[in-house]
User: Which sequence fits this backbone?
């Protein structure tokens, strides 16, 4: 007997028949004598619709009310799945975040889980019930509903697995594993049998939304055995594990992209100490993360162009803040651009191999793709390019690093 936590994403619970399919899968595991906890997302498209409704009512909504609205999609799917299980004679009940409770901080819209109370859950498991837990949601310090950021059900599942000390956490989704790049864009993408926590963390944070970044960090810290599997096909998926469990290591294990980026250029900023601090300070004060940065000396030697990226969703606010400070910062022009994508290559092999960035730049140059900004980490190189080049860049890089499937 094992204790297993499963998670089913939006497509996997996309309609009533699929929810019944999930119930069938759980029935098999229960009949094999396993204890099961299952986390579900809202039906595909539902959370997007809810977000749009909040925006239509008030563009700058109250973040706590936003959470009250967008968390509701998961309430429907947990109820339906618990019903489907009971209909099969399997004891089950639905759990909303506040009923467990899953305690989070008060950062509405992107709350962090602080603690998952286990008393209720253990009692239910002892009674032989399947735990059907709403993903994406928790309860803030003041008792209000919080959400964990888009894609947050992955993190709910890992947190649940860690809390009840499950033997493993299986993430069921609409692809059959983690690929070398998004299989929906590059048909030659190859499924990885195994990927290290570290690479998966980097991949997720650089845009591969197959797992929410925080879920991977949590799994790594808590030692949760994590697998990514298909809801629709019974084939082996991808195991996310420690480096010691991986036999052969590629130099580059994946290529990712993120369209959630926007570029801001401040033209002719004074070239003197303290300027960067006065530009980025106010953005940080407003919780706007700045990612890639490049500074060019401009021709007159007195001033410089400063280019950086922020999240797409933060662009308007960032521009507003910088415009409000125009006199203090003394730049000539502010130029925002949403038409950019961040493309990254990554792999733990980068620590020990030179020339990986060079291959990237050469490959993009050969395709006539202009690199606007560059950034690096220990195991990744990222470039900002025009959004129209997303597919071309991904395919070319995937090929250049020998990642194409045979
Ligand atoms: P779910 O609703 O099940 O949480 P998501 O849409 O959040 O599913 O994540 C699965 C999607 O992630 C896939 O449909 C795929 O397009 C995308 N994806 C991006 N990069 C990768 C990758 N490297 N490997 C697998 N899937 C990826
Ligand atoms: N339903 C939420 C979202 O669409 C959470 C999730 O699916 O993981 O972001
Ligand atoms: Mg997801």
Assistant:
């Amino acid at each position: 007997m094992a204790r297993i936590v499963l998670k089913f994403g939006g497509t996997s619970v996309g309609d009533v028949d699929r929810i019944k399919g999930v119930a069938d899968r759980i029935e098999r595991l229960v009949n094999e004598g396993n204890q099961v906890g299952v986390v579900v997302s809202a039906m595909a498209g539902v959370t997007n619709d809810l977000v749009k409704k909040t925006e239509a009512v008030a563009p700058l909504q109250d973040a706590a009310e936003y959470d009250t609205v967008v968390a509701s999609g998961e309430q429907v799917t947990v109820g339906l799945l618990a019903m489907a299980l009971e209909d099969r004679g399997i004891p089950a009940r639905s759990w909303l975040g506040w009923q467990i409770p899953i305690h989070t901080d008060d950062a509405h819209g992107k709350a962090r889980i602080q603690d998952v109370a286990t008393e209720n859950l253990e009692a239910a498991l002892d009674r032989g019930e399947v735990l059907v837990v709403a993903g994406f949601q928790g309860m803030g310090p003041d008792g209000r509903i919080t959400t964990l950021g888009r894609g947050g059900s992955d993190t709910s599942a890992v947190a649940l697995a860690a809390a009840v000390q499950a033997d493993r956490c299986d993430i069921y989704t609409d692809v059959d594993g983690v690929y070398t790049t998004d299989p929906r864009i590059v048909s030659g993408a190859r499924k990885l049998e195994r990927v290290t926590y570290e690479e998966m963390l980097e991949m997720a944070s650089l845009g591969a939304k197959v797992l929410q970044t925080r879920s991977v960090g949590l799994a790594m810290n808590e030692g949760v055995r994590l697998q990514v599997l298909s809801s629709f096909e019974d084939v082996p998926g991808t195991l996310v594990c420690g480096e010691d469990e991986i036999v052969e290591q590629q130099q580059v294990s994946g290529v990712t992209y993120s369209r959630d980026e926007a570029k801001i250029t401040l033209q002719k900023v004074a070239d003197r100490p303290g300027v960067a601090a006065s530009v980025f300070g106010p953005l940080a004060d407003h919780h706007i993360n700045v990612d890639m940065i490049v500074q060019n000396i401009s021709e007159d030697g007195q001033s410089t162009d400063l280019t950086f990226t922020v999240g797409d969703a933060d662009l308007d606010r960032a521009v507003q803040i910088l415009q409000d400070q125009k006199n203090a910062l003394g730049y000539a022009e502010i130029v925002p651009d949403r038409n950019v994508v961040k493309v990254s290559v990554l792999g733990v092999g980068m620590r020990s191999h030179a020339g990986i960035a060079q291959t990237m730049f050469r490959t993009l140059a050969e395709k006539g793709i202009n690199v606007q900004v560059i950034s690096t980490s220990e195991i990744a190189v990222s470039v900002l390019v025009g959004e129209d080049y997303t597919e071309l860049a991904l395919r070319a890089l995937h090929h250049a690093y020998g990642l194409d499937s045979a």
User: Anything to note?
Assistant: The chain has three domains: 3-174, 261-337, 340-400. Residues 16-31 form the longest helix (16 residues).
